[in-house]
Amino acid sequence: MAAPEGDEADLLNNDDGYKAPEKKTIDELVKLDAEDSSLQRYKECLLGGTKLVNPFPDDPRKFILAKLEICVCGGPTHEFDLKNLDGLKDKPIEMVEGSQYHVQVTFYVQHEIISGLRYAQKTTKSVLRSVDKVMLGSYAPRATPYVWRSEDEEVQSGALFRGHYNVTSVFTDDDEQEHLKFRWAIKIVKS
Questions:
Q1: Does the keyword Cytoplasm apply (predicted)?
Q2: What b/e sequence results for 15-25 when a residue is b if at least 16 CB atoms lie within 10 Å of its CB, and e otherwise?
Q3: Does 170 or 28 have the greater pLDDT score?
Q4: Among residues 11, 7, 183, 157, which one has the least CA distance to residue 93?
């Protein structure tokens, strides 16, 4: 993982006291406690069998973001153009103050288990700054995508909160591997 630039260190800092377990391959996990048939059935259910599935075998990434959406309740769904991550910051997503929304992430995991996948987001507007972090969970490789949905949240209201915000988003894991990082923008408008 590259060293964080400038004041982005707080985006990657995981000071929650959690210590990740020792990393093991899928093979090692399957062979662990092999004599316990109940545990083996549980592992097969959890891992989807012992055969490693790579939906994109020529792609070396472990985490592949398929879709990222901001879904406004009773309003539009904003889907990010993942083919042009660099252009996202130039096209702010308009959100009406006071509206309810949630974030939905659709992604693939391949090659090995990702333990402790996290999403962190730093939002800035002049002196206003917030960092939000959420643990998405641990995921085994599989052919079908995973879908994670956030809780509903409310867009902040009031003259102070209206305007353009710069956002930096990053997906990391327990091994402190940075899977994806990109910048985008939001514009909060009057209702």
A1: yes
A2: eeeeeeeeeee
A3: 170
A4: 183
